[in-house]
Amino acid sequence: MVGMTSPDLSTSTMTAFTLDTDAREALFTSARSAIAFDDRPVEPELVTRAWDLAKWGPSSMNTQPLRLVVARSEAARAAVIDAAMPGNRPKLEQAPLLLIAARDDRFHDQHEITAPGFAGFHERFETNPEMRASLAASGAMLQLGYLIIALRAEGLALRPYGGFDSAALDAALMPAGWGSEVLLGVGYPAPGDHGAGERRGRIPAELGIREL
């Protein structure tokens, strides 16, 4: 991607990957949380294709609590930007497409799609709202990780945002039972500077992995 540099992976002990270097760079090492984007609009089919790829990622009991609101109209965009923290509003305004990653607190209503023949599945979650709410939130965030990679696989750049008035956004745009979790500014990579600044460090494996 233009304007992106890869970190030095020469110290890695891994010598072979299934994905080639270009794919790894596009999905991980060169991808950035972009603020600046190309002017091209994001075609609706790209979001659909990314969803249809990301939905295959593993999840707890095959539950699918992630929901996505595409704020394509001017009114929807304005609602997203107004709900964001003041410092994030100019950044969101630069994104050609705004997405709202949400959780569906009644994800278990779709059990005949995700868990057909699973006796007692719906009743298990219906009678335990605390467990249902916990899985809705954690499961949606897990699926969001898959979706971010899938959007990158479509050649898109994006930046996730927290820090917004979820209650106001839910009242403005969310269907009943959906709760906003993360905002995404999405677009094609800018031909020049991505606006994300210098690449910051990451915790190495020796600090993040413990072998027992």
From TrEMBL:
GO molecular function, one term: oxidoreductase activity
Residue ranges the record marks as coiled coil: none
InterPro entries xrefs: Nitroreductase, Nitroreductase-like, Nitroreductase_HadB/RutE
Pfam families in alphabetical order: Nitroreductase (PF00881)
Lineage, opening ranks: Bacteria, Bacillati, Actinomycetota, Actinomycetes, Micrococcales
Gene3D superfamilies, alphabetized: NADH Oxidase (3.40.109.10)
Domain Nitroreductase: 32-188
Protein name listed in UniProt: 3-hydroxypropanoate dehydrogenase
SUPFAM superfamilies: FMN-dependent nitroreductase-like
Alphabetized NCBIfam families for the sequence: PRK05365.1
